[in-house]
Design goal:
heterodimer; A: alpha+beta; four-stranded antiparallel sheet; 8 helices; B: mainly alpha
Chain lengths: 394, 274
């Protein structure tokens, strides 16, 4: 398959002005324009997006992923390097950008369609589909300033999606409107994907990126960290981010450190290590730790996260009424799981130790352990199984 | 050349943006489009009262039309001037006003300038139509001169788009541009023979013992030539001088090329700066 988008050594600099003063006087006084520092939003980034795949751009805030999308959309121009795109492109950066508040929905459909590159005849052909998709037939001749924000966005999405692009760029705009409309959008994007169009998504929502995308590029501080299959890169992202900076996932970092969590061992029913359990297995999660000093009634906790960032379950010793005293030196704590009823896939275990009031963290590890659950005789869809058995002799 | 192709490819968008200008201009006003005629009417009344009545400016007799009405003399220059002045002032703002669009969608940004001028061009043509009716009513058989008038309109439009491109992009980087041009506009207005005939400008001007050919210098202003040509065709009913037409054409095309060139250079970081 050939490349729909080729990004070739792209560099993009922003100017950060110390004193924003767009006046000639200031320029003359200083002998030049306002002083600024250059900020590298994208630093020599190269990758290819193959035709017909769904591609995700992920990274923290300020990683350059949105800048990259705007460069692909030609809204921003690169300072060095080039971006080549093949095929008609439509960008969903802001739904309804360019709507004129005083004009009617109908007039705005024509205007917005034209901005997005449609001819009048093309809009005529698609007009009914657009209005139908937006679900606001009865208001189509009212000025859009009277629309609710939901209606505004619906109409904007309906126009953009009906441009019939070969390449669709999406920047987290899908988190708008009610659930029903969001589902409609997701379905529409899924169907465009099936039709073999190229889709590029920028998002923080790792689960949806994981669900939608085939491949992902991970950016950090304007540099490309890695590209590859979605699962692999997202996995890497979670691991790296979690180990570099747990605060990113909302876990505070002021741990006191009397107890250090060393790792997790998975032990099977036979008492032997079972690094890759099968769904439905009886397993014991053994949390190894080392205590620096005696700690009275610490609270141990753990949580399971699937590789797309969904919290599967979490529990702690306090809720189970366990009170223990940890003596200095190495030790361990077991969590017995009679049946491991999570869907096959990759999971991360977060481990925590808190003080007896469960207020001050002693040690927290975002990614204490990662393991794989293998598929067994128990089949399931979704993220969990109830362990039920089908019977047909009723 | 690629610019020309881009304009052609996106002419639908240009049409739509012009329609947006026109539709939104008088939305929610009771008089609506009447305003586009009331505004020039009010300025005609003011200039007629001050210059025609109080100062008794004597309009030259049209040759061969024999026309000597001050209001007609004024209209033939004031209406084109209004198009120039409004076109320049509004296109300066056209990028800043549409910042939201520039930051979120890609399309050739020149079209924002072109559509602003396009919207005003429609108004201008309507006003010209009204002026032509008035001229006909006053006995000026202006109909055969309409092709010449349209050529002038076309050249003037290129000129305004060129200046608009130049200044609108500059205004994104230096917001002073608009204020500066606001200051310059009255200077241009009075250094163009709109409310007075060109004959009131002295041929030569004696200063410190030297004589300066003031009328010739005055004539280098392309707006002077443009207004004179409009007046020739509409008021006097004669063919404007060929060298005048050529002079206007060179300026119009030159300004357009310079404007587009500067615009291309400044376009680079428009979405960040606007």
């Amino acid at each position: 398959m050939s490349a729909a988008i080729t990004i070739d050594h792209v560099t993009k600099k922003y100017r950060l002005y110390h004193e924003r003063n767009q006046s000639v006087k200031a320029a003359i006084m200083r002998g030049r324009r306002a002083r600024y520092e250059e900020f590298l939003a994208l630093d020599d980034v190269s990758f290819e997006i193959r035709e017909g795949i769904a591609y995700g751009l992920i990274g923290e805030n300020g990683s350059g992923k949105s800048t990259m999308l705007k460069c692909i959309a030609r809204i921003l121009r690169t300072d060095a390097g080039s971006i080549t795109t093949r095929g008609k492109l439509s960008a969903l950066l802001e739904l309804g950008a360019g709507f004129h508040p005083e004009l009617s929905g109908r007039e705005n459909v024509y205007l917005n369609g034209a901005i997005l590159g449609l001819s009048r005849r093309e809009i005529d052909q698609r007009f009914d589909a657009i209005v139908d998709f937006s679900g606001i037939e009865q208001f189509i001749d009212a000025p859009v300033k009277n629309y609710s924000s939901g209606m505004y966005v619906r109409l904007g999405f309906a126009v953009a999606i009906n441009v019939d692009p070969e390449i669709l760029l999406i920047d987290e705009v899908l988190a708008v409107g009610d659930q029903e409309f969001q589902n409609k959008c997701t379905d529409k994007i899924a169907s465009m994907r099936r039709e073999g169009r190229t889709i590029v998504v920028v998002s923080h929502a790792l689960p949806s990126v994981r669900a939608l995308c085939d491949e992902v590029a991970l950016l950090e501080h304007g540099r490309l960290i890695r590209t590859g299959p979605a699962e692999e890169v997202i996995d890497h992202y979670l691991t790296e981010i979690l180990s570099i900076d747990p605060a990113e996932l909302g876990i505070p970092r002021r741990a006191t450190g009397e107890i250090h969590l060393d790792g997790v061992e998975i032990i099977g029913a036979d008492g032997r290590p079972l690094p890759e359990p099968t769904i439905g297995d009886a397993v014991t999660l053994r949390f190894h730790f080392t205590a620096r000093e005696r700690v009275v009634e610490p609270v141990f906790g753990m949580s399971f996260t699937s590789s797309d960032g969904v919290l599967v379950t979490g529990s702690n010793t306090m809720a189970s009424g366990i009170r223990m005293v940890v003596e200095p030196g190495p030790g361990h704590l077991d969590l017995e799981i009679p049946r491991l009823l999570v869907a096959p896939g990759r999971y991360h275990i977060t481990g925590t130790v808190y003080d007896r009031e469960h207020t001050t963290p002693i040690h927290e590890v975002g990614d204490l352990h990662a393991f794989h659950v293998a598929e067994g005789t128990l089949r399931t869809a979704g993220i969990t199984s109830l362990g039920g058995t089908w019977r047909a002799d009723a | 050349m690629s610019q020309v192709r881009e304009y052609v490819e996106r002419r639908e968008l240009l049409t739509n943006l012009v329609l947006r200008e026109l539709r939104s201009r008088y939305k929610r006003s009771t008089l609506g489009w009447t305003w586009s005629l009331l505004n020039p009417l009010s300025s005609v009344l003011i200039y007629w009262a001050v210059f025609g009545v109080f100062l008794e400016v004597d309009p030259p007799v049209g040759d061969p039309s024999g026309q000597d009405n001050f209001v007609l003399f004024l209209l033939c220059a004031l209406i084109p001037w209004n198009f120039f002045s409004n076109g320049v002032m509004q296109s300066i703002e056209s990028l800043v006003v549409n910042a939201g669009l520039i930051r979120k969608v890609y399309f050739p940004r020149e079209l924002l300038v072109a559509s602003t001028v396009g919207g005003l061009l429609v108004t201008f043509l309507i006003e010209l139509g009204v002026v032509i009716v008035i001229l006909l009513a006053a006995g000026n058989m202006v109909l055969p001169w309409i092709p010449v008038i349209l050529v002038l309109v076309a050249l003037q439009t290129l000129m305004v788009v060129g200046i608009g491109l130049l200044l609108s992009a500059a205004n994104v980087y230096f917001r002073d541009v608009r204020h500066f041009i606001t200051l310059i506009m009255p200077v241009l207005f009075y250094s163009t023979p709109i409310v007075y005939p060109i004959t009131t400008v002295p041929e030569t001007w004696r200063i410190a013992g030297r004589s300066i050919p003031l009328r010739d210098i005055y004539g280098y202003n392309p707006l002077v030539r443009l207004v004179t040509a409009y007046r020739d065709a509409m008021y006097s009913l004669r063919m404007p001088a060929w060298d005048t037409l050529l002079y206007i054409a060179v300026w119009a095309i030159g300004l357009l090329l310079i404007g587009q060139w500067v615009f291309n250079r400044l376009d680079h970081r428009l979405a960040e700066e606007v």
